[in-house]
Design brief:
Shape: globular
Strand content: 15-25%
Radius of gyration: 18 Å
Distance between the termini: 39 Å
Strand order of the largest sheet: 1-3-2-4-5-6-7
Mean pLDDT: 83
Largest sheet: 7 strands, mixed
């Protein structure tokens, strides 16, 4: 199938991002020693600390273009085990999101970070919110990119209704040849290029477990407990009022959350509208909402 212009920009951006972080030495000698069977972290740049968390099936390379365009910070780029061709390790069985959040919190403490800015795309946004709710002292401010507190809402459903279906889907994707073909077909819907290649290299069990987590978690009740300022950047490709209302309603319980709609963008906001996303990120990192 032929990708639309937004898809092509997204795929090209992913290719450039992957090459940027593949350069030898890109991790930097300043990465603090940290061992985990769920995540790895590399650092780039110097300045105030910013933690970047990718979404489902993505590698840390999705942030390379953003890091290059917004200098002046020390970025901590998180990689989830099992995504983008990495070994699944402990993410290969059982829940993924909550244990990974706890590992990110452990990393923050081990690195001696204080009130860092945390930016998460998609599933990474869910992790940012969960971290700020569970470990409030570790999050200075959070940015959620294109994600609702209850991810099932993206599909017009509630976690309670998707839960049983999510369990069956997880078992199908991980336990049958038909499920593997289904996953391959889903990946091809995004077009051709490095974005699909990265997703296809992700471990099926980790992907299925993470999808199950996303279908069943609901952080709406945790929003009032998050003391850190929240900025929500979301795609609204055709400037539809319904999407704006959905996000306003979903984040009504947050303490003064700032919502920023990005028009003419798909889910990969940082690739589809890089200038707008980077402008929002700069404002966020400077302390504005």
């Amino acid at each position: 199938m032929t990708a639309n212009p937004i898809d092509r920009r997204r795929l090209i951006g992913m290719g450039l991002a992957a090459m940027a972080l593949a350069v030898p030495g890109a991790a930097g000698a300043g990465s603090p020693p940290f061992a985990s069977r769920r995540i790895s972290v590399v650092t780039r740049g110097a300045g105030p600390d910013v933690i970047l968390i990718p979404g489902l099936d993505s590698s840390r390379s999705i942030w390379a273009g953003t890091v290059a365009a917004v200098p002046g910070y020390r970025y901590h780029l998180v990689q989830l085990a099992g995504f983008g061709g990495t070994a699944p390790e402990d993410n290969g069985t059982g829940p993924v999101i909550a244990p990974v959040v706890d590992e990110i919190a452990r990393y923050i403490r081990a690195a001696g970070l204080r009130s860092s800015a945390i930016v998460g795309h998609s599933m990474g946004g869910s992790m940012a919110m969960m971290l700020a709710a569970r470990h409030p002292a570790l999050a200075g401010r959070i940015m959620v990119v294109d994600m609702l507190p209850a991810p099932a809402g993206l599909f017009g459903a509630a976690p309670a209704s998707l839960g049983p279906l999510a369990g069956r889907l997880r078992d199908t994707l991980t336990g049958t040849a038909e499920g593997q073909r289904m996953m391959d077909s889903l990946m091809r819907l995004f077009g051709d290029g490095p974005a699909v290649a990265a997703a296809e290299r992700s471990d099926r069990a980790v992907t299925a477990n993470a999808l199950h987590d996303l279908a069943t978690i609901d952080l709406t009740g945790a929003l009032p407990r998050i003391a850190a300022p929240i900025t929500v950047v979301y795609a609204n490709a055709e400037s539809q009022p319904l999407i704006d209302r959905t996000y306003r309603s979903a984040y009504a319980g947050a303490r003064g959350a700032t919502l920023i709609a990005i028009p003419q963008s798909g889910h990969m906001v940082m690739f589809d509208q890089p200038a707008r996303f980077q402008a929002a990120l700069r404002t966020f990192l400077k302390g504005g909402n």
